[in-house]
Design brief:
single chain, duf1285 like fold, duf1285 protein fold, six-stranded mixed β-sheet, 2 helices, disordered N terminus
């Protein structure tokens, strides 16, 4: 799957194929700002966070770190990753996450924008792999809005971007100042 690659092109483990026994919970939490915590303290080793991110899986009962022999549940406040960069190459939008994944938005890796129920602000996401998403960082979202073009939809005029031939709405027309 070309949609998600780990920096260094070492590939991703086939966690979707592993079915180890559930071994309980581990005190690892991913905050909504993308910081990984163990027992309440930030995990300072970037390489360790990257390693954990490659064995992260979303199951119906939540997020788990999975190996061929064990499965441990962790908590995730929002999305497990943050999209910290976007690049346009022709008709392709390529996102880079805080853990080094690269994903090209398209039919399999969609961009979606929710509205925060408390603040009313947009909460944009891009699918990274197998149900795992990255929250698109505010500066990156601003770049997307700058790239956005208007389009008439069944909901009215919206602004959006396209990637791999798929159009993704990012804002209502009234929310974007030209």
């Amino acid at each position: 799957m070309a949609a998600a690659r780990v920096a260094g092109a070492r590939g991703l483990p086939p966690v979707h194929l592993w079915n180890p026994p559930h071994c309980g919970e581990i005190d690892i939490r991913i905050r909504k700002d993308g910081v990984w915590l163990h027992e309440g303290s930030p995990i300072g080793r970037e390489a360790l966070v990257r390693l954990f991110s490659t064995v992260l899986r979303l199951d119906p009962d939540g997020y788990h770190l999975v190996t061929p022999v064990e499965k441990m549940k962790i908590s995730v406040e929002d999305a497990p990753f943050i999209a910290v960069r976007v690049d346009r190459d022709g008709d392709v939008l390529r996102f880079t996450t805080n853990v080094g994944d690269e994903v090209e938005a398209g039919p399999d890796d969609r961009i979606r924008v929710e509205t925060d129920p408390v603040t009313g602000e947009p909460r944009p996401y891009v699918h990274v792999r197998r149900g795992l998403e990255a929250l698109i960082a505010r500066p990156v979202f601003y770049e997307l809005v700058e790239m956005a073009e208007p389009r008439q939809t069944a909901s009215g005029e919206e602004f959006g971007v396209s990637s791999h031939g798929v159009w993704f709405p990012v804002a209502e027309a009234g929310a974007v100042v030209a």
